[in-house]
Amino acid sequence: MTEPLIGIDDVTPPPWAAGARSVAESGVRSMLRATPRTAAQLIRWAWRTSPRLTLLTGVVQLAAGAVTAFGLLATANVFTSLLEQGPTPERVLATLPALGLVALAYSARGLLDAAVATVQAALVPLVEQRAQDDLHAAVLALDLVAFDDADFTELVDRVAQQSIARIRMGVRITGDLLASLVSMAAAVGTAGVLHPLLAPVVLLAAAPQAWASLLSARESYASFVRMISRWRQLDVTGDVITSRANAAELRAFTTEDVLLGEHRRIAGQLTAEAVRLAHRQTRIQLLGRTLSGVGAALAYALLGTLVYTGAIPLALAGAAALAMRMASQSVSATVNESNQLVDSGYYVELYRACLADAATRRRAPADAVLTGGPHVVTLSDVTFRYPGAEAPAVDGVSVTVRRGEVVALVGENGSGKSTLAKLMVGLYAPERGSVQWDGVEVSRAADALSRVAVVLQEPVHWPMSAENNVRIGRLDRADPTGSARDDAARHSGADVVVGSLPAGWPTVLSTQFQTGRDLSGGQWQRMAVARGLYRDAPFVVADEPTAALDARAEHAVFDTLHGRTGTGTERITVLVTHRLANVRFADQILVLEHGRLVEHGRHEDLMARRGTYHELFTLQAHAYADTVPT
Ligand SMILES: Nc1ncnc2c1ncn2[C@@H]1O[C@H](COP(=O)(O)OP(=O)(O)OP(=O)(O)O)[C@@H](O)[C@H]1O
């Protein structure tokens, strides 16, 4: 097979990758500016999480840097007094107080390092938790339609998987960077005090290494942008291979080899790119180190010249050499930490961009209140298009539904039934036209969804007890004796499912837990119907609620939905189904084709019209009539 299995070999980088692309294309100077920006952003988040711990971290990091500087000065002092006129026993004794200070500085640094570790251990997880919490809150506040935008959902996935960990790392590195900067300033400052020429020379010696690190980081960004579609393909293929849901079909169609081959093909491309990148980065780093080495040699040569010409007394030369050594060490640490921050900076920025994007995709603010109802639901010229789609999924639908009615949505696959049902309850807002409940625009009503129960074809498999799988339909419903729960279970057939569970209602329905159980497709659907009934809402949307149910269970569910038994008829029921025998008794049948409402009426009217509904119904009826013995 030569064609890529996934079908898309090169996708356009999503808009959220623009940040990485601009870094990859930007100069070293703008990358230099990115580091303080990232650090400032992380400090702001840390401050927002805990001003006290942030302040404390800053203070102990600064103190650690300052103590290191103090240690350097004390050591320089020891050297100076030792070398002043050649060491003698008296002079050695005279250095003892300075040596004491060196020891003090070392132990203070040890204590401060412990303090840094303790304060960071408290602060970093808090910042991480807050970042995760804010992300979850933003995702839960999203308008449903946001999940239909593939680029945005990939952004959310990436941020959830990568950015949170990078924020954690970034906060820690920002603290370390602060301490390294103080040490560097102290060392460079000391060298400068000993002779003004030494400070710039020390910095110049380190500059090539810093430059090489930034170039190397820029190469990483460029590689990331180049391979972004490969990474997406690798993730998708990996998920197909490892997912439990796919396991049976994947084997039944004997696709193991082709999938493995596809995964290897993509992974091979990524590995080749990783090797190319590593070689390029090694060359850049080597150049940087060589130039830095030459710079360091020049710096020491300058020191030698200064001593030789008497510009620096010999007694101070040892201190100067020490300061230069420490300056180059702390410059290396600063460069290394800045580098890591540049690396994290991309994901930190992605997180910020994701929250900003999510804020624009929130559900519209509720500015209308419903008083009871809905009694009358009115759709006027409703049109809706999924993000990025050319054709509307629902196109100019107008209809009125009254309380007590059962409305069936009928049509071929992809004709817009599920989308229309979601528009009716305000899960989607129309692009054109309006959906009103008793004259109120439903997508702007504060409490519309609390009046809705949905039963979907592929319901959520809530990883919780069977009891809560039903009660989550309305957790605040007062049902101390469990009679409402039992009613819902009886009318959906979930009572039989629960009866077969080892611990009954408390059994956890998830094999992710040791004592948990999984259910069959039809059993899950019965639980979903029970949940919908338990919600006891005045507006019920049942989207293929019985697709996986056996005949007896299906019959019972439709009896309930049609209000012929049990749980009350004072509601609106919207039913999406392909089993047309179940829509015969509906008060209104809406037939959709390519999103347009092409037929509308009761069963008898539509049969008399001999249009699409008549054709679909007759096809199904014949399939049964030919086989039922008379
Ligand atoms: N998330 C989405 N993004 C883009 N297009 C979508 C999305 N979901 C559905 N569509 C498209 O919108 C149209 C209507 O889909 P919808 O799910 O409403 O159809 P349906 O009548 O319920 O289909 P089925 O009988 O197969 O369940 C289809 O053309 C479908 O391809």
TrEMBL record:
Q: Indicate yes or no for the key word Transmembrane helix.
A: yes
User: Where do the TM regions start and end?
Assistant: 53-79, 91-108, 173-191, 297-324
**This protein's record includes keyword Nucleotide-binding:** yes
Q: Which InterPro entries match?
A: AAA+_ATPase, ABC1_TM_dom, ABC_transporter-like_ATP-bd, ABC_transporter-like_CS, Type_1_exporter
- Domain named ABC transmembrane type-1 is located at 55-343
Report the domain of life of the source organism.
Answer: Bacteria
Please report the stretch or stretches of sequence annotated as the ABC transporter domain. 377-619
Which GO molecular function entries does the Swiss-Prot or TrEMBL record give?
A: ATP binding
One Pfam entry for this protein is: ABC_tran
Where in the cell does this protein reside? Membrane
**First-listed, main subcellular location of the protein, grouped into a coarse class:** membrane
CDD domains reported in the protein's UniProt record:
ABCC_MRP_Like
Residues spanning the signal sequence = none
Q: Which UniProt keywords apply?
A: ATP-binding, Membrane, Nucleotide-binding, Transmembrane, Transmembrane helix
Q: Tell me what topology the record assigns in the membrane.
A: Multi-pass membrane protein
Q: Which PANTHER family match?
A: ATP-BINDING CASSETTE SUB-FAMILY B MEMBER 10, MITOCHONDRIAL (PTHR43394:SF1), ATP-DEPENDENT PERMEASE MDL1, MITOCHONDRIAL (PTHR43394)
Q: What is this protein called?
A: ABC transporter ATP-binding protein
Task: Give the organism, scientific name.
Answer: Pseudonocardia abyssalis
- Record lineage: Bacteria, Bacillati, Actinomycetota, Actinomycetes, Pseudonocardiales
